[in-house]
Amino acid sequence: MIRTSKLSTYYILITIIALFTAGCARTSPIDKEVDTFDNLRTNVQDVVADPERAEQSLALVDELQQVFDDIKDSRIERRDRIRALNADYDAPRADFEALLAEIGSERVASQERVSQIHRRLFDVINNEEWTELAKSRDKSMNAAIKAMQSI
């Protein structure tokens, strides 16, 4: 009788360890973003035959990733500012409106920066290369969005 309870405890312990270990194996959205941008860089090197255009494309991919990193940093800062303002019960409505207006203008500026980089990237590579890179480019953009949303 004692032997089966020890055995049951052993199986329960193994199951708990397996569940915790499985949870640790997942990659964070930010890690996935880094991986997809690395994959995009590799694909750019493989697809763009001209070394000069490939270097320009890689620089634009780096710039695009930096924009997304800046956006994530900005989101963290905004979140903290919103929490601080919300915690101040005496904060006037004008402070909230000013913060929301600032957030809106930052969002528009970020969207414009991403669009400009995409246009410059499209100017550097040709239509066939753009089409070949579409899947990895889309994965990178989606991963960047998920990373921003995870903050």
Structure overview:
Helix 2 packs antiparallel against helix 3, helix 2 runs antiparallel to helix 6 and helix 3 packs antiparallel against helix 4. With 151 residues, the protein is mostly helical. It has one domain. The chain starts with a helix and ends with a helix. The chain has 6 helices and no strands.
Any idea how many domains?
1
Low-confidence stretches: none
Gyration radius over CA? 23 Å
* Distance from first to last alpha carbon: 51 Å
- H/E element string? HHHHHH
Helix percent band = over 70%
How many helix segments?
A: 6
**Would you tell me the overall average pLDDT?**
87
What percentage of the residues does DSSP assign to strands (E)?
A: under 5%
**How many beta-strand runs?**
0
The quaternary state of the protein chains shown equals single chain
Which class do the helix and strand fractions yield?
Answer: mainly alpha
Largest sheet: none
Shape: flat
What's the helix and strand layout?
Blueprint: H1 2-24, H2 29-47, H3 51-87, H4 93-124, H5 127-132, H6 134-149
Outline:
It contains six helices and no strands. With 151 residues, it is mainly α. The termini are far apart.
Name the features:
mainly alpha; flat; single chain; 6 helices; 151 residues
